[in-house]
Amino acid sequence: MLLANNAAANNWQLIKNEDGIQIATRPYADSAIKQFKASVRLNASLATILAVLDDENAFPHWVHQCSEAKILKTHSFAERYGYEKINLPFPVKDRIIITHSILRQNPQTKAITITMNAAPQYCHKQAQNSNPFCKQINASTAIMVPKASGTYKLTPVANKNVVDLIWQQHSEAGGTLPKWLINALLSDTPYYSLQGLKRMVKQEKYKNAELIYDTNNRIIGFTPESKKW
Questions:
Q1: Sign of CA pseudo-dihedral 150, 63, 69, 87
Q2: How far apart are CA 193 and CA 198, in angstroms?
Q3: SS3 category, 57
Q4: Cα–Cα distance between 58 and 51 in angstroms, integer?
Q5: Domains held by the chain: number
Q6: pTM of the model
Q7: Backbone angles phi, psi at 64, to 5 degrees
Q8: In angstroms, how far is CA 121 from the centroid of its own chain?
Q9: Residue 22 belongs to domain with CATH number
Q10: Which of the four pLDDT bands, split at 50, 70 and 90, describes residue 1?
Q11: 151, containing H or E segment
Q12: CB of 15 within 8 A of CB of 2?
């Protein structure tokens, strides 16, 4: 999975290789903003990593420049809508993003893929009018991210409590951003976020997380006694 070995493939250009984190970028169709791919090896179980991703209150502690996060609606453990506020340096306006995420697991390899797509109109739909957090989002002066798509792929390493993570993402931030900031975000966002994630999976409250599966062998949540966040 090491990007240093295949950055030349598919037009990827390696831009950072530090602290076990590798980041590459490539042009994205019909966009002036490049797509990034970041990889890291985490010394943690799948359940522990999913526990950190499940804990929206922890997002500001590891997601780069995230100041606030909230789950707006949960359809199931595998499908939800979430919100994040991203603080950007003055005088650039902060951004907010609403994301629709879906989790799938390969039954043979146990690898998990989480797809994430921006849903900027979510809080403007009639059904969400009663959501108090949507009212706060709609009243915000921050700019809504109009387009974003990405994936987390979590692949367990055989016979080890180790998972390889690849995060691939493209975002259109909306409004106007200076080129220096765009370039910085393509490197800093995945690098500092994955550094933070490496720290978070070491916290005791996530270490004993245990997943529950339904009769179709699909993840439906965590055992109540193991959910400490």
A1: negative
A2: 9
A3: helix
A4: 10
A5: 1
A6: 0.92
A7: -60, 125
A8: 19
A9: 3.30.530.20
A10: very low
A11: strand 147-156
A12: no
Average pLDDT of the chain to the nearest whole number: 92
Residue type, 45: S
Report how far residue 35's alpha carbon sits from residue 119's, in angstroms, rounded to the nearest whole number.
Answer: 19
Phi (first) and psi of residue 173, to 5 degrees: -75, -15
Q: What is the pLDDT of residue 99?
A: 98
Token match 């193991």: residue? Answer: 226
The rounded distance, in Å, linking the Cα atoms of 80 and 54 is 10
Name the token pair of 132.
């108090």
Is 121 within the bounds of a domain? yes
Domain residue limits at 125: 3-206
* Integer Cα distance of 117 and 119 in angstroms: 6
47 in a domain, yes or no? yes
In a domain, 219, yes or no: no
Task: For residue 212, tell me if it sits in a domain.
Answer: no
Residue length, the chain? 229
Per-residue pLDDT tens digits for 172-212: 999 888 888 888 889 999 999 999 999 999 999 999 999 99
Structure tokens that stand for 6 in this block: 């295949």
Q: How far apart are CA 167 and CA 161, in angstroms?
A: 19
> Around Cβ 103, how many Cβ atoms within 10 Å?
19
